[in-house]
Amino acid sequence: MIPDALGAATGPPGLTDVERDMVAAVRRFVDQSVRPAAPALEHANAYPEALIEQMKQMGLFGLTVPEPWGYGAVSMSCFALVTAELARGWMSLAGAVGSHSVVSALISRYGTAQQRDRYLPSLATGEYRAAMALTEPDGGSDLQAMRTTATRVDGGYRINGSKTWITNSRHARVIALLCKTDPQADPPHTGISVVLFDTTTPGFSISRDLPKLGYKGVESCELAFTDAFVRDEDVLGLQPGRGFVQMMRGLEVGRIQVASRALGVGQAAFEAALEYSRTRRTFGKYIWQHQSVGNHLAEMATKLVAARQLILYAASRIDSGERGDMEAGMAKLFASEVGMEVAIAAMRVHGGNGYSTEYDVERYFRDAPLMIIGEGTNEIQKTIIARQLIERGLGI
Q: Which of 28, 128, 219, 253 pairs as cysteine with 122 (C-beta 3.0–4.6 A)?
């Protein structure tokens, strides 16, 4: 491995000393504990219980939980760098903490005092795990067309419907569930709410775990809700009809997180390719000295540095309180495409060995596509970015 080959462990100027120490600590954890264990866990598709426990002890499940409910939320820039480090070790670990952090941020920002007191202390320690349920089997990225309904009854709602591709489903105690509380609302998004759904509620079931190309070890499931009762006070912020807006703000955090996952996978692929090119010899010289291989390395490094800077730019806007939905979308779009390109280039540098399960680059190749699809496909990101450019009156 090439230590800090692209400055990944060096934070931007705005990071506090504590945040810099946290990023460095996660980097050591990845190098010492994650990378040695990840190949066997990934190929066995085994849930990483021991690594998750270490992450709990490090406070990584409380990164978006403010005081007094946790140790204090870190900046979005720090969150991005921690995520990238975890993904550099094993992308599945970043996924295990990803949606959990988004839900924690949603409750922190929009929850009532009672909802914060109920959930945030346990979420901060990882005693409670969280998932968010948006996608439906026939809906994809079209959230306004969802069919999961919460029908008004005395004292609350009865929920019926299904969700799919939900990470952390089997380990979550609370799910931020997006559902329709008013199917007749016009425009449709004004009838959508976020419900803080306790997974011990009768009527909830996990129908199956979805088989995946990559992203092993951490489950992605289909969920079913059959007349599951939730109380009025389980609606996020006690604000029915505000769920779409709330979740879109939450996805700013989610898209920074997915972009950072892609950066981490790309970083790992680049480090593997760089190390391999320094030790592998053909035609009497190290392969990095062949122009075709050297060109791959130069392009990989350049794109990763650009992706990292774009992620930190989007994170800095959120940290400063500025609007960051377009910037988070740009970061997710660019970084995820770069992550895929770098993973493929790393396989090219490795040649036939890159296709072997004895080398980690084949895992990076299988993990990278998720970030192109997850948290809103890149095709959707382009639509959102174009709309924001028009709405904001910005030129390039």
A: 128
